[in-house]
Design a protein that fits this description.
Elements (H helix, E strand, L loop, with lengths): L15 E4 L1 H14 L4 E2 L1 E2 L1 H5 L3 H11 L3 E4 L2 H7 L7 E4 L8 H6 L3 E4 L2 H9 L4 E5 L11 H4 L8 E6 L10 H14 L6 E3 L3 H4 L9 E2 L22 E13 L4 E2 L5 E2 L4 E6 L16 E4 L2 E6 L7 E4 L11 E4 L3 H8 L3 H6 L6 E4 L2
Helix pairs in contact: 1-3
Bound molecules: pyridoxal-5'-phosphate.
The site of pyridoxal-5'-phosphate has 11 residues, from α9.
Amino acid sequence: MMTGLSGVAPGNSPLSLSLDGVALVENWRWLARKSGGAACGAAVKADGYGLGAEGVVRRLSAAGCRDFFVATWAEAAALAGHTGGARLAVLHGVRDADMALARSMAAVPVLNSPEQVQRWKSSGGGECDVMVDTGMNRLGLTPEEATSGLLDGLAIGTLMSHLASADEDSAQNGEQLRAFRAVADRVPAARRSLANSAAICLGADYGFDLTRPGLALYGGIPRAEAAGWIRPVVTPQAEILQVRNVPAGACVGYNATWQAQRDTRVAIINLGYADGYLRAFSDRGSAMLGDWSIPVIGRVSMDLVALALPDGCAAGEGDRVNIAYDLAECARLTGLSPYELLTGLGQRYARIWQD
Ligand SMILES: *Cc1c(COP(=O)(O)O)cnc(C)c1O
């Protein structure tokens, strides 16, 4: 039997992520339809945004996804053999220290700088992707570098750029689109790619040949156009370790930030900031037990959270609760981004796919 970190079978793990594989695939299909004529890939960096990259890649490749994006060669190596023959691209490109691994794997680097281009050429070249910076000033060649002859002789699979403000109605989107078109007209590449999740919602102009959604696959709503279509995928589930009676006037948790106004039954669960349930959820988060919504009270600890049980809620030790984890709502409550809410999920969850 497969065991988790603790040697406990995943089904018995006291802390788990319930992952809706049907919703994941439906989200990808919606994004693929919105990508128009472009192929729809998937960003699976940061361990599939915290869900577990292998489980994500297995489901999406079975659904027809042929292009996956990771950040590092270690992430690529972890997925080798699980992509169902789909293409894997490494967004950080190649350092000298990566070359041996890069040359031994089917994954391709996304070359971001003149140094990376030279490194790839001098080690023999071969298929690669190229990132052009069109105004975000993050990774990528400048348009001038990309059209200077530097790329001559490279076999470019995908020429790409990335939008800084696709989740807003910003003039920067159109400016970056025009800048990308101008470079793409002059640099030969098998395919061109610009759109992340939010840019897919901006319309067909942004699709080119290949799109690269991440967040929306995992249930994040990148723009209003996706609301009502994108389904939640991730629900953390924890277990009640102890229920205690807290008399009126007594306090709960570090620094005694919560004080009982009346006698209160309090449930302690096995979740904390080490699991990505950050202190920003203190006095703000909630859990569900059946139809009961149970508020988080006091400070979130490293491995524990306290919940105030409503009158009539007969919860006891060993009962499982679903943590309320609607990404938009939690982002509003905590000030964290939906990206942080996903990628911060730690290593202590058993990741349990429901499909
Ligand atoms: C992470 C990433 C994506 C995916 O972005 P989302 O906003 O999560 O859809 C696409 N392209 C690049 C270059 C990225 O780094």
